[in-house]
Structure formats: structure tokens, C-alpha cells
Known about the structure:
- There is one protein chain.
- By secondary structure, this protein is mostly beta strands.
- The chain has helices at 13-16, 27-31, 370-380, and strands at 38-42, 45-49, 55-61, 76-80, 86-90, 95-101, 103-104, 113-117, 120-124, 130-133, 139-140, 148-152, 158-162, 167-173, 175-176, 184-187, 195-197, 211-212, 220-224, 227-231, 237-243, 245-250, 253-258, 261-265, 271-277, 279-280, 288-292, 295-299, 305-311, 313-318, 321-325, 334-336, 342-344.
- It has a 4-stranded antiparallel sheet, with no helix packed on it.
Amino acid sequence: MKKNFVWMIFLVGLLAFSSCKKDIPGFFENMGEIEQLFPIAVNEKIGYIDKEGEIVINPLYYKDGELYEFFFINGLTPVSTDDEKYGFINKSGEIEITPMFDWANSFSKDGLALVNNGDSYYFINKKGNPEIMLNQYDDFSCYFWDGMAWVEDEQGDYGFIDTDGNSAIPAIYYDVHRFSEDLAWVKMNDDDDYMAIDKDGKSVTPDMFGSTRPFSEGLAAVKVGGYWGFVDTKGEYVISPQYDWCGSFYEGLAIVELNNKEGFINKDGEWEIMAQFDYCYEFSNGLAAVEMNDKCGFINKKGEWVIQPIYNEALYFMGDLGMVQIDDDDEFISWINKDGEIIWKDNSGKSASLKEGTSTFWKKTKNMDRGELRYQLRQQLGF
């Protein structure tokens, strides 16, 4: 994964819109219903297949952005037309919101999507009408999480707004993270540590954590004294700091790194799968992509190979299908089922790109080192 690692994006929008501080942990749980339609690239355009590999939406559209922006969320997905304006199509491939935006993000379960025209950013509803204007803020979240979105005011302080655009928590913080399970990590000043607050802005944990991750399944990874562990919603240690790095809990397991190898622990801090892999991804639909000896495959929760490590790259199973790179010159995703059968083999070729003038899916980050990749994917994008 580290030699040709492009799973962190689908990928052009990351650099252009990195200021949005997009987070992925719990992303799909937060967003709502995810359709079982899987993106493919043909002749530099994006279409969609079903779980049997049949094309259900012809490749007619251009897209760029991050991984999750390629899926149908709450029945819609943003697409770009030939004149490079963005709109939204439904799962039948029909235009639902006319392409008229310079850029558009996915809809969350709150029924709002961030769009951009010129210098203006604002949230629209599913009719394409503006709901919340954001010009008064210097920076802002790309999504609402638990009904809250962080914003930065002209003084550089952070607070939160609700889905009506009203101030829910005043901008008094030096830094904030998104809400997850009704809690958000914040710090008052640069020299302070992080504490968790609730939706009323009341602190629920001490301010004693140097780095944090969003709450997931009742626990949050925190870093203290150079090591990572896990706390509950009161800030009390459930698993003491002892790891070089921790992910979040998904499907009852969390990735941890120890001595440059990764494995999975349960909520009691017990090893379920010993640290033996060069790189791991969170469990999704009962399977996790892992790398060993520069090849990638999928394991189950017993640590057994379900799909042997034969791929250059692998990421997640999105329902019935998983994302892999089969050949070095594949520039977009291939899809396999849980038996390891190829459902769709990418044939976009070396000349294809998601959008004219942009880097191709698989090649954007191949020269990045492991530490930078980890930062970009797991910090900036949230894992």
C-alpha cells in the first residue's frame, strides 16, 4: 500500500479543499443511507455498476474528490458535466439538481450539502436552494455531524452552528474536532490539551489529552505522554496509553500499532489479531484490508485470510464488493466480491484521468512516504 498508495482519495478535491478538515471515522454512519452502487471509470468518465458487475448508470460524468464522495449517499451523488459545473444525479442516473455549482459535496442525512460558486460557499437543500450562507466565516466544516458543523470566525476562533445556521456553541475555542456520538474534542488555547464537550458546550472530560480521535462505539483514542490509549465518554481510561498509534473502534475492533507493526485489539485491550501487518484498514462488513510483504488482501475477525494477499492495493468492502488495484497500470478501482472473484476489472489505462488536467487516482501519492500517507489519510481525512 505504501509504494503506490492512493486509497486516501478518489482524489483531486483533497488538495483543493483540504481546509474543510473532512473526517471519515463514522462517515457513512453519519451520512445515512448508502446505495449499493459502485463507481467505475471508462474513457475518463465515471459510471456505476451493481453488485453483479452490471452497468446501471452509464459512464457519462466527471467526478473528483475524496473516497466517500463517489458513492450515492441518501439517494444522490455530485457529478460534473462537460462544462465543469457540478450538480446531482439520483440512483437512476437522472439529473436531480441541475449542474450550476463550481463544486459540490455529498448530502448528509440532515439533507444539506456544501457547494461553491465563485467566492461563496453555502449549504443547499435537496431542491438545490441555498439554506445556510457561510461568507461570514473564514473556515467551516464540509458536513454536519450530529446536527452540528464547526465554523471559524474572523478572529480565528472556532465554534459550532446548527442545521438552521444559528450559533449553537460560541466561537471561543482555539481548535475543535467534529461531533461524534454527541461529543466533540476542543482546546481553549494553543498551549492547552483537548477536552470533550457536549452539545451545550459543557465540558465532560478533563483537558489532559494531547491528541484525540472522535468517539466511536463509546470510546475515543487519545494520546498522552507519547503513547495512545482509549477513554470513555467521561475521559476515564478504559485502555491505558501503551501503543505507538491507535485507530477508532469499528465492528468491535480497533487498529493499533506497536513496534512498526499493526494488529487489532478489542474493547478490553486484548489482542484479537496480533500486530503482524505492515498496514491495516478498519473492519468493514466483517473484513479488513491488510498489507503484508508489499501485497494486500482481506482478513476476517479471527485474523484468517479470506482473500489472499495478491493485490497491489486494497481498501474497504462497501457492502458486497471490495476495492482493489490489480495491475500496476490500473488507474481507478477494480471491484471484487467476498469470494475474491473479480466483478469489475479497471481498464481505464495509463492515459485516463478523472478530470482533464488532474492527476490519476492511483498515482497522486505514490511518492509520499509512510508517515505522510498516514497523516494525510488518517489525520486529515479522519482515520
